[in-house]
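Why should sequence recovery work at all? Because a backbone constrains its sequence more than one might expect. Tight turns favour small or flexible residues, buried strands favour hydrophobic ones, and helices have their own preferences. The token representation captures these environments compactly. In the example below, the structure is given first.
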């Protein structure tokens, strides 16, 4: 990795505004999208093949069960404890780290976003974004259709109700 490549990730990790069109970010997202597509095309019965793809896509997860139609931005910024279960249509926008504790259930249609876009249209069009880590404690349930926004910290044992939006 060259110094300029390190610089873009440092910008992302330090919650500064960064341009999502940077070649290294685009390349990392393209790889994750390809792996998600391959994963989502495999039948659930293809356990060994799914696990192999998951280990490439999500190298920092432990024991995880993922339903159909999973999507993420990078995969490399998702960290989990043991025994995490995700339903179908879960989306994790992991520009900044998304830490998920042990024994967590993520139901269908949940969105976890660690990035935000500027309010100004010109800056959005230019590809500016900002990322803030998301932390989810042990023994949490993220109920169907809820949304977790950048910078949110969910304490151990919490149950987020269906359709709720968590902002902090």
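From this structural description, the recovered sequence reads:
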């Amino acid at each position: 990795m060259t110094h300029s490549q390190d610089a873009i990730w440092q910008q992302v990790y330090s919650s500064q505004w960064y341009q999502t069109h940077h070649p290294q970010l685009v390349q990392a997202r393209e790889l994750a999208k390809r792996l998600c597509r391959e994963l989502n095309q495999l039948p659930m019965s293809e356990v060994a093949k799914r696990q192999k793809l998951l280990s490439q896509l999500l190298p920092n997860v432990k024991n995880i069960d993922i339903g159909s139609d999973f999507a993420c931005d990078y995969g490399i910024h998702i960290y989990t404890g043991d025994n995490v279960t995700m339903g179908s249509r879960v989306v994790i926008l992991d520009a900044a780290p998304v830490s998920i504790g042990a024994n967590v259930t993520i139901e269908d249609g949940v969105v976890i976003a660690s990035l935000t876009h500027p309010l100004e249209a010109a800056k959005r069009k230019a590809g500016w974004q900002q990322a803030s880590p998301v932390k989810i404690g042990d023994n949490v349930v993220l109920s169907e259709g809820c949304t977790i926004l950048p910078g949110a910290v969910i304490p151990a044992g919490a149950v987020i109700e269906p359709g709720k939006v968590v902002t902090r």
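A few observations help interpret the result. The two ends are 34 Å apart (CA to CA).
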